[in-house]
Amino acid sequence: MLLLCGGQSGEHAVSLMSARSVLTALPAERFEVTPLVIDQAGRWLGDADTARVLGGGPMDSAGETVSSSIQPHQVVGYDVVFPLLHGPHGEDGTVQGLLTLSGAAFVGSGVLGSAASMDKVMTKQVLASVGVPQVNYRLLTRRAWQGQPDAAQAQADALGYPLFVKPANMGSSVGISRVTAPDELHSALTLAFSLDRRVILEAGAGGKPRELEVGVLGNDSPIASPVGELRFDALFYDYETKYTEGLATMHIPAPLSAGVAERVRELALRAYAALDCAGLARIDFFYVEETGELYLNEVNTMPGFTATSMYPKLWEAAGLSYSELVTRLIELAQEER
What are the residue numbers of the active site? Predict the structure, then answer.
């Protein structure tokens, strides 16, 4: 089995931590694993540099000399590939297309499910067609904004404040801004458009909604985990809160009524099927407790996968250990789909 990790996105370090956890958890008697790090410049490292990086050596950067690297087509020949990559150039269908052409079985969603789930606008359009509730939003393109900034302002005003500005294709809260007044919009759009040519404006879900997460596991007959909840003091789940130890806490199972928990699980499975996901996904929701409203926030087809990440913890609460979960994902990759 080939374990791909690292990658060019802002979640490079998270991917490496996840890979170390997976390598430790895989039963050595069942799996022969070859790890391969993709550095932040997009180079596929050879055995020596991969071992150095995963062993805690210095991180690669665009200016650093690499002693051993390979070409992507050289990975052909593995029975199973675990593309433990997050964000652009990893979770967006690009690597999945390469692996499909190689003929290898691989963990996670295929090209369609990966691309549709990564692109926030496409996700919203697909889920609207199957009745999954979401907050109101508007799509902006860089060229349209540059040509008609007043029109962008008008769309933001129509949504109301506070609102959120997000790059359409970016993970891990990168480039997201909470905008509370019209004079904050320009800087938020400047940041988001520096990362993507397409940006979405999202209405707030009302006050500070509760943030719920559920794990889905399976191919054409998926199952949903218990529902978990993230709690934090920040105004929203930004990059600093997500990756600074102690700023957010997980509560599994989330303290919810049975009816709300079941509704979250049902909506997660509906979204998973509509987006043609496979293997795994973590699906996140906003819950406005005062009104009982649920809104799907986003779908992550390759969520963080350290032993303490939310996705493995959700399945641990369901009775599936980390090692059993990783093994099950590899088995799902080998199923005919």
Answer: 11, 172, 243, 282, 284, 298, 300, 304
